[in-house]
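Appendix B, Record 12. Input sequence as logged:
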Amino acid sequence: MTFDLDRDINKRVHFIGIGGISMSALAQILLERGYKVSGSDMKSSNIIEKLKDKGAVIYIGHHADNVLSSDLVVYTAAVSMDNPEILKASELNIQVMDRAEFLGAIMKGHRYNIAVTGTHGKTTTTSMISHILMEAQVDPTILVGGELDLIDGNVRTGKNEYFITEACEYKGSFLKFYPYMGIILNIDADHLDYYKDIDHIKDTFEQFTKLIPKEGYLIGNTEDERVEELMDKCSCNTVSYGFNKGTLQAHNISFNHKGCPSFDVIHKGEFLFRITLRVPGKHNILNSLAAIGSALALNIDKQHIIQGLLSYRGTHKRFELKGVKNGVTVIDDYAHHPTEIKATLSTAKNYPHKRILCVFQPHTYSRTLALLDDFAESFYDADEVILADIYAAREKDTGIISSDKLGDRLREKSVKCTNIHSFKDIAAYLEANTREGDLILTLGAGDIVKVGEEFLQL
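Logged structural output:
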């Protein structure tokens, strides 16, 4: 089935797992365009209450009767095929579509689809581009995987031809999209519960590049060898970027007292302009170069690029300052992959601190097991590591891997590391063992942010 936003306006669309960050965004787009929307989830949340206020019918719990009045049912990758709503929809011959396919169908209605992909940095780069396009007043539709203050949430519905979204590589989801512009930030080993190995991952990214039309653009990070290889094979227009190679380069880099960079943007050997960022970290220079490359390809005026990036102050859960108590700073970050942890700790090193206490919650058993050796090498920039239990997400505990085993590896590497199994106990440990000038980093894609919040309330 092809889904037409204008033709199918009278259809009722039902979302299984409507409370999720991506599913809620799709539901909101439909609501704001006049669709009848229903959905189900296991529990209520602020997101669900906002959808109710916009007119969505929400069911708590998954039941077959929830889909009876639906014309189309959309589900996420986390929903199993024995879900009672999927089974009932199939029984009644109601069209069933996964989230990625549905998002691809929505993208078809726009001319300039910008799909931001890569193992790390998607939310930040999507947010940076969003700031630039909003500064340029091109009225884009925006789908971002985090809370962005600029749009008061994670979605904005525009009325123009510009559509910008994160493009997740998990299970090859982004192969169902229709990008005019694809941005590949990096290619790293991840989601090894689905992918066989890094070659399988790279091959899937190569398939993604083939979705870009000849007149479209591939923006790629040439600091990443795998991305650089794909750039050489691509038949569309390309813009490469990096520190010392690529079409776009960052020169004369400096950092302020909070680790936020300024740099000259060099395009094909010539100075274009100087950029100042209000988010810290060397990795964000590369993210901003990707945003600059996309904006230049779209012929956005350079002043809009400069001001758009200057106005970006970060996305929630991306090196987000949560508070300060008795001189102890608490920052939360989404980092849950070894490469991301290294980048975040490197950023923290340039942030004012006396000691860095890193509270890490591993995300999924499969990732922790597959990348155990890499995780063991990721925490050298922390003065102390406190490990919470693994956040299971969509997985079940088989007993093969645990946070304790990761802790043993870290201690073997002479990293000061303590395993603590409850958030309450971690917060109490931090209360007893921190002093003025310390920086607490809570890292992970689960709910570890609660530890920092609880510490601030003690």
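The mean pLDDT is 95.
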